[in-house]
Write a structure and sequence with these properties.
alpha/beta, Rossmann fold, ProC C-terminal domain-like fold, 2 domains, 8-stranded mixed β-sheet, elongated
């Protein structure tokens, strides 16, 4: 099954590695990329091939669109005359609906919409897929299968994709912002930047592993580490007094609303 990749940035490269890990022969993966130096780099690194856009599109059974939302309309206009009836198009653009992509391709092309996140780059990603009309079970299973090589995959109704974007799509940035805040807080308490960073990063890495492997909920683990009237309780009380839950909820709502606007 020949796979075409349109857009070979950081996420595009992560998907290429996932395809190869899934068992796709590198010779069956073809990219179209405006930056010649970037294309040459990926060809050298993975043994894939590079083709002019129209040829790549016309010969691919699966076509991955790894482009920015604001570039999607132009890309669809360029590729529409060349997409085969048997090709399934897989979009990784935030906010762009299946109907928008299908209409841009003439209205009959099977489309799968995916919201990945950046931990995909280290094989620990979270992807949510929504499947449009006409997608074969073979193509659906193929896409879900190779995405599983990047982490975990769930299927959701498309009307929930904006919520997915606000949760797992943008979620890594929330995490990194909290890490930054903790490092700054530790430095304000007198720790060096190096020590503050090591303490904070390993605390999050260990906590995430504990949450994933213990089989216990986040609520239970939080309660386990919180002694009545202890240091942790004091910190959590401060979070509560400043309405952390509402702050997070409103931030996610803002992300969801922006995803809707991008449609």
């Amino acid at each position: 099954m020949k796979v075409g990749v349109i857009g070979a940035g950081v996420m595009g490269e992560a998907l290429i590695t996932a395809l190869i890990s899934y068992g796709v022969n590198a010779k069956e993966i073809t990219i179209s990329e405006k930056r010649t130096d970037r294309a040459d780099e990926l060809v050298s690194r993975y043994g894939i091939s590079v083709e002019e856009l129209s040829k790549n599109v016309s010969t691919s059974e699966i076509l991955l669109l790894v482009v920015k939302p604001q570039d999607m309309a132009d890309v669809l206009a360029q590729i529409s005359p060349h997409v085969k009836a048997t090709t399934t198009v897989v979009s990784f653009a935030a906010g762009k609906k299946i109907d928008f992509i299908s209409a841009g391709l003439g209205g009959a092309t099977p489309v799968i919409r995916v919201m990945p996140n950046t931990p995909t780059l280290v094989g620990a990603g979270m992807a949510a897929i929504s499947v449009g009309a006409g997608v074969s079970s073979t193509h659906k299973d193929f896409v879900a299968g190779f995405l599983a090589a990047t982490g975990k995959v769930v299927e959701v109704n498309e009307d929930l994709q904006d919520a997915v974007t606000a949760t797992s799509g943008s979620g890594p940035a929330y995490f990194f912002a909290f890490v930054e805040a903790m490092i700054e807080g530790a430095m304000a308490l007198g720790l060096s930047k190096e020590v503050a960073t090591e303490l904070t990063v390993q605390t999050f890495v260990g906590s995430a592993k504990l949450l994933q492997e213990s089989g216990k909920s986040a609520t239970t683990l939080r309660e386990n580490v919180t002694s009545p009237n202890g240091t942790t309780a004091a910190a959590l009380a401060s979070f509560s007094a400043n309405d952390l839950s509402n702050l997070v909820s409103k931030a996610m709502e803002s992300a969801r609303n922006r995803s809707i606007e991008l449609a």
